[in-house]
Amino acid sequence: MVVHHLHPWDLSPQEAMELQKELASRVREEPLDLEKVDLIAGVDVSFSRGDSTGYAAVVVMEYPSFKVVEVAGIKGDLGMPYIPGLLSFREAPLILRALEKLKRTPQVILVDGNGVAHPRGLGIASHLGVLLDAATIGCAKSRLLGHHEEPGPQKGEWAPWRHEGRLLGAVLRTRTGVKPIYVSVGHRVTLEDALELVLSCCPRYRIPEPIRAAHKEVNRLRREDG
After folding, report:
1. How far apart are CA 60 and CA 43, in angstroms?
2. In whole angstroms, what is the distance from residue 95 CA to residue 188 CA?
């Protein structure tokens, strides 16, 4: 995949926050033609607490069969130490290096993290989307901010997720009776399309298949590296 290198990564926390505000203005919410989606990727990062070395993996799957067609992984140094709200400056450089290794270009990338559901409107899914100029969706297991009602217990039910009057995304029940996930627009997709696509990527489990596959791959890389 082609990465648009719009900025350096060696920034101070304050510089990073200012950059997030600027890049957030480039995020676009636009309809995604789901009928033309035939390749979806999931990305994940793994590292040990206190370790500056991380592993990133991307798995590309045919859609809607979820057949794996390409896998790319990489080991490298993480960016800045973990600071709430600045996750992308820690993990995105490694993810982008893995994505650059792909020979095929997915139409959508599912990210284990938030999109516009972020204090400055630029979570890791949105940051990646802007740098790739690609459709991205945030699929988080927990929320960084905001509030919501509990969605209904059945698969497919969801509730709006808001912060200070702003719609951040939706809390989606991907399995009946199982804890929901937090879905937010990353880039070049609407929330409605994001919900439909994410739900269709959860035929059996709580977490979307592309992200599950990326999680397995990144853990395999860690094990093999010893």
Report:
1. 9
2. 19
Which residue in 32, 104, 36 sits closest to 68, CA to CA? 104
Average pLDDT (108-122) is 97
pLDDT the model gives residue 144? 86
**pTM of structure:** 0.96
Binned at pLDDT 50, 70 and 90, residue 151 comes out as: very high
Which residues share a beta bridge with 163?
A: 166
Q: CA dist 193 to 30, 58, 128, Å?
A: 9, 22, 18
Instruction: Dig out the tokens for 186 from the structure.
Output: 């990353």
Q: Is the dihedral of CA 173, 49, 57, 128 positive or negative?
A: positive
Give the model's pLDDT for residue 80.
Answer: 86
- CA dist 224 → 44, 51, 69, 135 (Å): 17, 17, 21, 32
pLDDT of residue 181: 98
The H or E element containing residue 77 is strand 68-77
Distance CA 37, CA 35 (A): 6
Query: Crossing angle, helix 87-99 and helix 124-132, to 10 degrees?
Result: 40
Amino acid at 69: V
Asked if 137 contacts 116 with a C-beta cutoff of 8 angstroms, the reply is: no
In the DSSP assignment, the letter for residue 45 is E
As its CATH architecture, domain 32-225 has 2-Layer Sandwich (3.30)
The residue written with tokens 């791959």 in the block is: 217
Structure tokens at 169: 């995304």
| Domain extents in the chain | 32-225
